[in-house]
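Form 7-S
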Amino acid sequence: MSKNTTCLLLIIFCCCLVSNASAGASFTNHIEMLESSITFTVNETYTDADALAFREDLDTDDNGTLDTLEIEDFRERYLSNGGAQFLEYIMIDDGALPLTIDSIDIQFVNAQGPVDNSTLSVTTTVQYSMSSVLSAGVHGVWVLGHPLIDNMEFVLPKGMEVVSYDGLDNTSQSVHGGRVVLEGVSGIRSFVIEDKPAFEYAAYVTFQKEPFYKGSFFLPLLVVIEIILASIALYIIKKNKNK
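Output:
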């Protein structure tokens, strides 16, 4: 893994506050895609020593208590570059379809109060827009992974189906509200660069428009067509008998 990738992981998941991976931190990613936008949600949970270290770094006046002003100060500093780091976190079609960040929101749960090791949660929501819509053809979404992500969930645009995926372990697929949901644990993706094998902590999901014959309307339509054909055949048979 490159130095840049390592730094990016620290920025996104630990907000430059927790330098060592441990059992006291865990993350989930939720990637919801529409035809022209993506909502990316990172849920971070810190416990024990990691929760204490996080609070200590947030406590800028070192008085042993976190208040609203300190949390807001962190939020402003973290987003001072407009969240540009998140443009490196997700790619569509290997970067061929550019993304623009429309908004970023960061929410803390159980952050205010004494600097201790009680559970602390942080939810970051990034709203992206695309320069064009995901239409016909095959598309791919790439999302940077991490060993501490115990769940990555991809919600495809309506009418899309999964073609293949890599970098996800213990996967499952389901359909909710007519949209395919693929989820699993962040794993190692393998690929080839200049005929040489390469590996990275990232997930890559390839998807495409669902063939028309898989649509919910197709089976009822087929039944109607069969009934019409059977009626026509029966009419012809009766007409021939009456001659």
